[in-house]
């Protein structure tokens, strides 16, 4: 699904990612952990193709295709989707209109998924305008449920969300990355940034990675990595790899 080879990324002339290698197979969900400022969001934004993230060397392959130089909209059309940590407010654009534009013509799914995410009353409101933290996260998940990407990236989906919303969001994210039972042999994959690990209560992650100082320092069982981080901090994860 996704293969990253020796990826180096600079932001405003400063190299932030140094030689990232990552392989996510079809049907796999990976979890990315690391301290603030380690480059996690930069990695997701580089994969998605945002401007301002200069790939100075290395390659990104998606479903066997080199997408290193493809623009963001082409990557989205090809099957990538992303939930932001801090998504923007879009004044003048109603949430319902946005969902219609990304539904691929399946407008019947909008009512179904908006009710599921408790967002039906928000469809006539500007995107994220006056939304609480939990409402923004539910809106982001709703947009991905409508888009149905093959590969979904989530930047701290638990951030700023109360326990009730975490359960709703967690179960919905699990649906995003599970095999599509309606299409034979269609597997979905995901890459999720988490600090708390709460999302692991709702889905079975296949692998975990610890990113520090722009380099992936550790690979392994995500729950085991999280346990070491919680008990001993990130430096112990780094030390055990030396």
From TrEMBL:
The keyword ATP-binding applies. Residues 2-238 form the ABC transporter domain. SUPFAM superfamilies: P-loop containing nucleoside triphosphate hydrolases. InterPro entries: AAA+_ATPase, ABC_transporter-like_ATP-bd, FeS-cluster_ATPase_SufC, P-loop_NTPase. It comes from the Archaea. Pfam families: ABC_tran (PF00005). Keywords: ATP-binding, Nucleotide-binding. GO terms for molecular function: ATP binding; ATP hydrolysis activity. This is ABC transporter related protein.
